[in-house]
Write a sequence for this structure.
């Protein structure tokens, strides 16, 4: 729905993965929402690789789905190759990933956005924010129009003073061929937000018709593809395979002899890029002993010949790109559709944000996605959802919400960002989550949908499904705990247990590696009626039980410290007994809780003991100080 | 005790000395310097100043050092007065400082505590300094210095570093298994590293608690039948009268402790009640306690007085647990009617002494020192119960890794136990964050498609 209204509860600037989730979440809460984008046809665009999910990122997609977001459903509608990564490893580290048809994915996102009644899409450039007495009240568009709003969500992606590098060529752009956003940076800085520069890159795009696929190893999708969304019944598209080629010693020689023409190595680009997504020139220089790197050739669509060569992002000049790409098997005669490039852009130090992703400097202004120093569609979308929901809640006078580290990877990410800031684009990894065994892709709905219903971002359809699932889960779990047998009885069913006379429950039996739900059907035939998703879910819970029990007590401790709130107006610069460095760190991060303060790099137990004196929600300050002191030494 | 007070204390040993150092720390440091010296000397520069009290009387000519916050030992404004070391001078200057009303005498260890509170010391270093202050003997001082300079930190740092590597290898195979550059089998490499660390920590934990002993002193129990000369021996070693010595059996009912310095080793001698059967209820309790103390001691001196009726040992034989270290000593050589030498099958004595004449005492002390130093040949690493607990925790998690890996189940459990072991170890060295793991991982593998 496109209109010319000028008053909104929430205005979202940007139509990427963060912006669309933010707008949709705000709308689900019931807010009147405007989404401002340069060009409505770029809504849902995948600027870089045509894939959703992966290790760590797959968790985020499932969590977005659990909060009724749109990314998972769009990926199911656009997906053309589904794979569950780490299938042979444990359930906690599995990551669903889908190769997507660029056009189908964008179409799914656009249909979702355009289908929301209380959401207007406005084409135009948001040139400035209207800020009155430290609170954002609206947005000024490039054509001079002014829109007013209760809250604003800013999702600028790589557009904030975006600068593209290809060799020594520099282009001011937000994406190739699209205008950057140059004005907003100054506004943000004027209000006391600290900006920095980050860098990312993308590889050249290839014409698939000119690739010799016959010489390439092919990687197919899974035989039984699993959708991202709980609401998806069928995956509509045919599944394709990807090709795998490798860089050769010739590739490396070409790159090495032209390294001086790379803006990365010529000193033109000084901002930090992600270490886990290095350019090919980085790989060749930093890992000089490797003579070859894998390159995945990923088709960008079912009716699109464009191929995304995953693994060779670069900012080398076009002629060098052509030369090194053609030195790889299968690509000898390849035609380059579009050169790769590096892009530098502004981001805001996320330590200026609260856990609801609102800036402390400008009330009512929420930031999500690359502007917060992250990288990746999934990271952006997850933040967008939380920022959009909070923007809508704030506009309606509700308090801010955020999942915590024990709820979700989203909570881990937000806490990492606001506590540690970033030194390189932040990407999700499963290893970032200390409660990894508890936060799995198979229990995202269990962890979050109930909260989402409470927070007001889950629609009626999912609410019904969720309640039904929870009922089934509880019933079966109780049943499996109640049903018990002795080792002697088990022996009669061919299950051999230690003959200690101890009765064991069906749930306990599931924790044995050689016993699964199928095995137990012979004992308790009812188990045959257990839904498939629930079988694997309970098998995992049982197998993890020992570790999960310990995590429960760790989580209790963590949440106890999160209950100890530090006053928002606390003046760390005047706090006696703290070193200058710590005062500075604390003033930058402004931890909201004693727990968050404890996670700040370099905090001392003594400093925590002092901070504990200021915390509310405690019974006896000295006890708390001692407790913190013992738990978190130096 | 507030940190806003300015504190003062004598930093050197009391008594006559060439120089005595008075230390001052807190917000009123400058004001006090101004009052005594007439101005505030340039920071971090030795300045010669005439010190006067508020009445204008000249107290001393001293070298004065001023340290401006935060670049001082405590992190606060601080100063040192290097005075001529006479009791009168020190008292006069101290009084002058206190008379300003701006400062008070420091509590024991308060300077270190402030340094710690201001983040100038980490926990290990602070504990090292606390021990340094408490160090009564040379061996304790050396250990405190070792800890401060990081022999503990270095070892633990190496374990930490290797466990980070182990975890990076494991995490690489979990978080980046889809990467071309990440080979299979990394988890096995990780497990090999963690099990080597496991073994090393277990070895260090089996050090007989020498480190803690060096802090608190080795205990040597003096036992024997009543009137065997235990108290007399203790008095001889201590060089003063500490226990009540009387010729009547059963004089010492409670254990009496004397802390001594034997060639740099702190030793606590415990004089126990005479071990004998008795009807006296109080004495019986004393005997029971004596036995307990003796069994808990690092070394037992079993004393026998000569029975002047024969060369045989008098009294009933005391039976000790097999693992007790024991030195058999025959006392009262001066009044023995039967000449007796060491190694004599009848006496069963390792030493023959006389606490009255001093015969054999030096040899006995030398033997005690040898027994103790034998246990400290390897510099002990663990000097704090807190460290020991953290290492025991670490080992518990590492132990589970070997169990889990032998059953070849979920690699995420191995990663979880590595994470927990690093968290436990972090109680000594400071936290290990996921960034440490990722740093290691990204520097080792070419990650990124």
């Amino acid at each position: 729905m496109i209109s010319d209204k000028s008053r909104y509860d929430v205005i979202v600037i940007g139509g990427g993965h963060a912006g669309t989730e933010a707008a949709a979440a705000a709308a689900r809460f019931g807010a009147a929402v405007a989404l401002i984008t340069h060009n409505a046809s770029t809504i849902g665009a995948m600027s870089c690789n045509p894939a959703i999910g992966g290790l760590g990122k797959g968790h985020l997609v499932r969590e977005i789905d659990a909060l009724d977001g749109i990314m998972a459903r769009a990926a199911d509608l656009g997906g053309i190759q589904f794979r569950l990564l780490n299938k042979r490893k444990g359930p906690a580290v599995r990551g669903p990933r889908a190769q997507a048809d660029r056009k189908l994915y964008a179409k799914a996102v656009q249909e979702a956005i355009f289908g929301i009644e209380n959401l207007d899409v406005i084409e135009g450039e948001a040139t400035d924010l209207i800020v009155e007495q430290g609170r954002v009240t609206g947005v000024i568009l490039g054509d001079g129009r002014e829109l007013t709003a209760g809250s604003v969500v800013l999702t600028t992606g790589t557009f904030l003073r975006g600068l593209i590098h290809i060799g020594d060529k520099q282009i001011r752009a937000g994406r190739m061929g699209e205008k950057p956003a140059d004005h907003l940076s100054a506004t943000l800085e004027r209000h006391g937000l600290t900006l920095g520069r980050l860098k990312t890159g993308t590889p050249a795009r290839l014409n698939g018709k000119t690739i010799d696929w016959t010489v390439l190893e092919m990687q197919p999708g899974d035989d039984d593809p699993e959708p991202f969304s709980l609401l998806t019944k069928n995956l509509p598209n045919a599944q394709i395979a990807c090709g795998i080629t490798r860089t050769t010693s010739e590739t490396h020689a070409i790159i090495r002899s032209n390294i001086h023409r790379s803006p990365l190595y010529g000193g033109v680009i000084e901002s930090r890029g992600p270490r886990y997504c290095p350019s090919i020139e980085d790989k060749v220089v930093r890992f000089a002993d490797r003579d070859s790197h894998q390159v995945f050739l990923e088709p960008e669509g079912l009716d699109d010949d464009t191929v995304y060569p995953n693994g060779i992002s670069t900012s080398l000049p076009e002629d060098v790109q052509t030369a090194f790409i053609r030195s790889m098997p299968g690509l000898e005669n390849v035609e380059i559709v579009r050169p790769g490039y590096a892009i530098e852009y502004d981001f805001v130090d996320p330590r200026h944000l609260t856990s609801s992703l609102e800036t402390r400097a400008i009330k009512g202004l929420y930031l999500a996605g690359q502007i917060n120093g992250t990288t990746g569609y999934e990271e952006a979308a997850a933040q967008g959802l939380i920022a959009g929901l909070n923007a809508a809640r704030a506009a309606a006078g509700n308090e801010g919400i955020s999942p915590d580290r024990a709820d979700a990877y989203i909570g881990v990410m937000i806490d990492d960002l606001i506590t540690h800031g970033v030194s390189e684009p932040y990407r999700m990894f499963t290893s970032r989550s200390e409660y990894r065994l508890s936060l799995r892709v198979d229990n995202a709905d269990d962890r979050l949908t109930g909260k989402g219903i409470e927070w007001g971002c889950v629609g009626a359809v999912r609410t019904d499904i969720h309640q039904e699932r929870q009922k089934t889960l509880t019933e079966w779990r109780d049943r499996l705990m109640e049903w018990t047998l002795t080792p002697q009885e088990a022996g009669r069913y061919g299950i051999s247990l230690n003959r200690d006379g101890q009765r064991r429950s069906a749930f306990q039996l599931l924790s044995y590696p050689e016993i699964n739900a199928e095995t137990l059907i012979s004992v308790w035939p009812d188990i045959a009626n257990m839904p498939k998703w629930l079988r694997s879910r309970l098998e995992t819970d049982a197998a993890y039980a020992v570790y999960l029990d310990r995590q429960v007590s760790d989580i209790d401790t963590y949440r106890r410290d999160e209950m100890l709130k530090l006053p928002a107006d606390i003046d760390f610069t005047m706090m006696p007994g703290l070193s200058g460095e710590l005062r500075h760190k604390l003033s930058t991060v402004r931890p909201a809780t004693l727990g968050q303060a404890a996670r700040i790099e370099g905090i001392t137990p003594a400093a925590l003991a002092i901070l504990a004196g200021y915390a509310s929600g405690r019974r006896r300050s000295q006890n708390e100080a001692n407790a913190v002191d013992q738990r978190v030494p130096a | 005790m507030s940190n806003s007070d300015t504190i003062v204390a004598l930093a050197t040993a009391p008594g006559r000395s060439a120089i005595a150092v008075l230390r001052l720390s807190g917000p009123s440091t400058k004001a006090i310097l101004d009052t005594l010296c007439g101005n505030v000397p340039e920071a971090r520069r030795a300045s010669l100043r005439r010190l006067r009290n508020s009445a204008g009387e000249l107290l001393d000519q001293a070298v004065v050092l001023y340290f401006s916050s935060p670049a001082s030992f405590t992190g606060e404004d601080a100063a040192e007065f290097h005075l001529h070391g006479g009791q009168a001078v020190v008292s006069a200057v101290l009084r002058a400082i206190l008379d300003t009303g701006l400062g008070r005498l420091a509590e024991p260890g308060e300077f270190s505590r402030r340094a710690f509170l201001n983040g100038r010391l980490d926990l290990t270093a602070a504990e090292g300094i606390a021990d340094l202050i408490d160090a009564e003997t040379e061996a304790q001082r050396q250990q405190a210095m070792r800890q401060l300079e990081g022999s503990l930190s270095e070892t633990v740092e190496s374990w930490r570093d290797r466990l980070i590597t182990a975890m990076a290898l494991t995490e690489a195979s979990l978080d980046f298994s889809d990467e071309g550059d990440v080979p299979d089998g990394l988890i096995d490499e990780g497990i090999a590293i963690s099990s080597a660390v496991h073994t090393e920590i277990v070895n260090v934990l089996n050090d007989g608690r020498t480190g803690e002993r060096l802090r608190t002193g080795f205990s040597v129990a003096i036992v024997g039948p009543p009137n065997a000369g235990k108290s007399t021996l203790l008095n001889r070693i201590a060089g003063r009268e500490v226990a009540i010595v009387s010729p009547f059996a059963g004089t010492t009912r409670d254990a009496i402790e004397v802390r001594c310095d034997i060639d740099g080793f702190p030793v606590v001698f415990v004089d126990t009640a005479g071990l004998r059967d008795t009807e006296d209820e109080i004495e019986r309790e004393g005997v029971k306690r004596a036995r307990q103390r003796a069994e808990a001691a690092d070394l037992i001196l079993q004393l026998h007085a000569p029975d002047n009726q024969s060369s045989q040992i008098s009294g009933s034989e005391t039976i000790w647990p097999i693992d007790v270290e024991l030195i058999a000593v025959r006392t009262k050589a001066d009044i023995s009617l039967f000449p007796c030498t060491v190694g004599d099958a009848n006496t069963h004595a390792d030493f023959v002494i006389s606490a009255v004449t001093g015969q054999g005492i030096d040899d006995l002390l030398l033997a005690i020192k040898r027994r103790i130093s034998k246990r400290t040949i390897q510099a002990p690493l663990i000097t704090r119960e807190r460290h020991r607990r953290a290492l025991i925790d670490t080992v518990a998690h590492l132990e589970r890794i070997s169990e889990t890996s032998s059953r070849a189940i979920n690699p995420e459990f191995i990663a979880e136990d590595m994470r927990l072991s690093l968290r436990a170890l972090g109680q000594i060295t400071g936290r290990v964050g996921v960034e440490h793991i990722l740093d290691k991982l990204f520097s080792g593998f070419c990650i990124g498609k």
Summary: Chain A has four domains: 7-201+345-455, 205-341, 466-543, 564-631. The two ends of chain A are 56 Å apart (CA to CA). The first helix of chain A runs from residue 17 to 29. Residues 564-631 of chain A form a domain with the DNA polymerase; domain 1 fold (CATH 1.10.150.570).
